[in-house]
Amino acid sequence: MRSIRDIHKQVTHDEAMEMLGQGEYGVLSTMNKDGYPYGLPLHYIILDDAIYLHCDLEGHILDNLSYNDKVCFTVVGYTQVLPSSFTANYESVIVFGKGTLVEGSEKINMLKGLVRKFSPEYYDKGLKVIDAFKDKCSVIRIDVEHITGKRRS
């Protein structure tokens, strides 16, 4: 992997993982068999140092993963445009890894994790939604192979 050009903006691995854990949305990028990239913004969670997200039962993401399991996942955290300086303060994380479709208890644990992260006050209701929804979605685990984070403040 190429190193970060502005090394003074690079954060440690632990800081990048923390920024990743604090994010709500990320863009999952895959490649199709014709060589075109496809990026889709998705909610996600972190479990056991892996990124988990859900998507439909069929579509570009799953088609692309069946062709090539290598993915890139990008999260932009805090941003602040500084108009007079023609720049911005920001936090961002880029992950490279492999995407794998998961099933069974791993899938259910991810869906419960989504409820805990985004709707903790409705956890019991969320369990009922999971029960109705679990067979209508796919869950993907991204095993992190390389992560970089940058911060300008």
From TrEMBL:
Pfam assignment, any one: Pyridox_ox_2
Q: Which SUPFAM superfamilies match?
A: FMN-binding split barrel
Top-level taxon of origin: Bacteria
Q: Which InterPro entries match?
A: Pyridox_Oxase-rel, Split_barrel_FMN-bd
Q: What Gene3D superfamilies does the entry give? A: Electron Transport, Fmn-binding Protein, Chain A (2.30.110.10)
Protein name, UniProt field: Pyridoxamine 5'-phosphate oxidase-related protein
State the organism named in the record.
Pelosinus fermentans JBW45
Recall the taxonomic lineage recorded for the source organism. Bacteria, Bacillati, Bacillota, Negativicutes, Selenomonadales
